[in-house]
Amino acid sequence: MDVSALQKARYNYKPKLPAILSGSIEDITVEFGDPTEAISDREELRDIFKNTYGKPFATFVKGKHDQIKRELKVGVILSGGQAPGGHNVIAGLFDGMKKGNPNSTLYGFKAGPSGLIDNKTVVLTQEKIDEYRNTGGFDIIGSGRTKIETPQQFASSLETAKKLSLDAVVVIGGDDSNTNAALLAEYFLANGSTTQVIGCPKTIDGDLKNEHIETSFGFDTACKTYSELIGNLCRDTNSAKKYWHFIKLMGRAASHIALECAFQTQPNICLISEEVEAQAHSLNQIVDQICASIALRAKNGDNFGVVLVPEGLVEFIPEIKKLIDELNDAIAAEEKSFAEVTNFIDQLYWLSSRISEPSYRVMQSLPPDIAQQFLMDRDPHGNVQVSRIETEKLLVGMVEKRLAVMKGENKYSGKFSALSHFFGYEGRCAFPSNFDSDYCYSLGFSAFVLIMAGLTGYLSSVRNLIAPADKWIAGGVPLTMMMNLEQRHGSKKPVIKKALVELNDKPFKTFVEKRDLWAEKTCFLFPGAIQYFGPPEVCDQPTITLKLEY
Ligand code: FBP
Predict the structure, then answer these.
(1) Could you say which of 78, 79, 310, 319 would form a disulfide bridge with 173 (CB–CB 3.0 to 4.6 Å)?
(2) Where are the beta strands (DSSP E) in 64-141?
């Protein structure tokens, strides 16, 4: 098979591990902390997770563990959206298992959680793993968004675990997939199965984090990839000086990606959804904010600029959030009936008696092509697919109209020509940065140690990430401690709470200190492409967000 020169070179990259995992395998044991509690809804969660609720933190320390050389059978799942480094999680898990016992077997479940339900597997051999080391993508086994939800799906998953005599299942996924991992761990135990379930924190969105999970893998590479592209657009527009670029960035609900890319490129405007919600900004107020910067720069003769728009923005604008919530509930309550209405005009009529009058008015005020995007299929977890709502185009259209009014009022006299972009899929399968290569490999290796320690319902955790890798701290965090109950598909469900941008934390505050200057002057930074080989200050740096947070 032909491979690129970079891919060949990356095969030889040796990911760095925390000191505790890079020494002798016979010298790793687990130290337990205090029992944990869920974030909220503790009573209900204790009841749902009767066997797995409230386990203690686990940290790996030096010491003897008599099970470490046990022969294992483990199945691994890549779940949800792709994130750079997934292959290295599998490689770390594989290498740990083989170091423990060369006879151990790692199965890959094909195409996400459905591979577990339908028992579709491939045995991952040394040769196969070597083909994917330090590469992007999830193509080694494929990924999928199937949610293990129905009693039948849980029973089939257990059946597969029994048929393969699995010691453990490792779920590499985001908040929803790891919620599923927690439910699976509970189900297995409640049904007398000894198959353990361990999660690994994946998602470019960066929203699966807390004080014990410093970041999800893939965030680093995705942000650096988008920042390269944004930086290139900044330089392009600074050269020709004639376009405003409106760039929507993936990240689902959270604005972590937009904020990190703002630090790396210093655009004129970066909207932060969490702030929009906190200040209850309307769509018109957001447009006013953008127009104020455009007018200010036009006065200086700068009819160009860059605006970053987080993917989930619309869900945080109070009137639109209300509309989305009402749409979700109305559609979930009568899914079949709604599916039968295919024409947009008829859909509006269908909705008119099912959502509130103010929400109906908001729906009607949106350009029809955008309004239709709010009605597209929900994902299997009941979320609106925000990546498919063209917020960047909506904003360009509204800004154009507002500037025309401002011109009439003599408040603006510049030229406005805008181009819209959406960066999302471009960053999800990039070659993982050195940081993600190391972090992912360590997460996979840690998952192996958690399995050897007999733990279930844990998320693999590697901390102290701004230090050099040998100083990283590895262990596991009980999944139930990250949970609360949330409204999904019309009813309350246990879910891992998404970590959104905290307005009182250092990253956002640092951004606030700088943004007024960026809105008026041209302060662009050009971070360039991810470097895989070279000096550590260029190649081995974590994100600015992580540095500010820790
Ligand atoms: P995960 O939450 O599964 O990691 O997915 C992240 C993401 O890339 C989001 O940023 C985006 O909204 C979504 O996936 C797009 O989903 P899809 O790949 O199904 O189009």
Answers:
(1) 79
(2) 73-78, 105-109, 121-123
